[in-house]
Specification:
CATH class of the domain at 5-184 and 236-265: Alpha Beta
Helix content: 25-40%
Strand content: 15-25%
Structural class: alpha/beta
Number of strands: 12
Distance between the termini: 32 Å
CATH superfamily of the domain at 5-184 and 236-265: NAD(P)-binding Rossmann-like Domain
Strand order of the largest sheet: 3-2-1-4-5-6-10
Radius of gyration: 19 Å
Largest sheet: 7 strands, parallel
Order of helices and strands: EHEHEHEHHEHEEHEEHEEHEHH
Number of helices: 11
CATH architecture of the domain at 5-184 and 236-265: 3-Layer(aba) Sandwich
CATH topology of the domain at 5-184 and 236-265: Rossmann fold
Length: 338
Amino acid sequence: MKNLNVLVTGGAGYIGSHTVLSLLEQDYSVSVVDNLCNGNIESLRRVENITKKKVNFFEGDVRDPSFLKKIFFKHHFDYVIHFAGLKAVSESIKNPAEYYDVNFSGTLNLITAMQLRGCNNLVFSSSATVYGQNASVPYVESLERGDSTSPYGSTKSSVENFLEELSVSSKSWSIINLRYFNPIGAHLSGEIGEDPNGVPNNLLPFISQVAVGARKKLQIFGGDYQTPDGTCRRDYIHVMDLAEGHVAALKHLKKPGCESFNLGSGVPYSVLEIVNKFELISGVRIPYEITDRRSGDLDEFWADASKANNAFKWKATRSLNEMIADTWRWQSKNPKGY
C-alpha cells in the first residue's frame, strides 16, 4: 500500500483535506490538485503537521486540459478521488452555466487526462441530491435518479450518468460514485475544519460563526415544512466518517464497472435540533430568525447506507454530540478560519 499513489482533486477543501489526512494515515502517497477557490493551502500544511507526512500540491483548475495532462504525464497515479467542484444549491440556481462548466466539463477534462495515462480507478464525490425531489425516504441506491431541484444536483446526476456510460464503453474502468448527505464536524485536533469563503451556505459553519461573534444571528430558511418542528430535517455525517468512507471505497475499487453508494448516518435532525444541541454543547446562545424558504430545499431526507456497510464494511460511527463538539473546537480555536 505504501507505493500506491492517489490524486485528490479539490483536496484543499473541507472534505478533501480530511480525506487527504485519512489517506496519509493509511500510508498512501497523496497528491492534490486545487485552484483554491474554495480551499486553503493552510489546510494541507496542517494535515502534513498532524500526520508528519508530505502532500504533493499542484495549484490549478480541472477545467484546464493542458494543466491536467502535464501533471498526469509527469506523475503516476493509481487512483483518483474527484472532489473538485462547486456545491452551493442556491448559487447554482443563480449561475447554472458556471456549475456545468466546473462540475461537468471539469470532470470530462479529468477523465481525458486519466485515459491518456491509463489510470482508470476513480472515486467520484457525488450527492444525495441526485435522488431528486420526489424520492421516498430513506434514500436507497436502487432508486432512479430523479428530477433535481437545482443545477447543482443536475450536474451531479449528469456526471454520474456519464461515468456509467464510460464504464460500459470500456471494461478497464472501475468507478464508485459516493452519494453523501450533510457533512459536519472537524478533525479531533481542531486544526482543520470547514472554512467557507464569504457567507456560509451550510448550517453548521453559519451557527459556529454566530457563536464566535463573526455573524449576528442565524437565518433559518422556512419554519413551515412538513416536519415535527417545521424546519428542514437532514442526515448529518461527521466529516471524518465521510473521509474514512472514501478510503474504504478506494480499497473496494477492484472490479470493472460503475457503482453508487450512500454515505450517511441514517438519522435525520432538524435545523432547530442542531441549534439546540450546539447551544447545549458550546454553552453559547445562538440568536436566530426564521425567514422565507430557500429555493431548492426539500422537507427532509436521509440515507440508507447499508450497501456501503455490506460492500466495504463502512459505517458512520461518530455521534451528533461528537460532530458538534468537534465543530466548536475547530471554530473556537480558529475564529477567523485559516
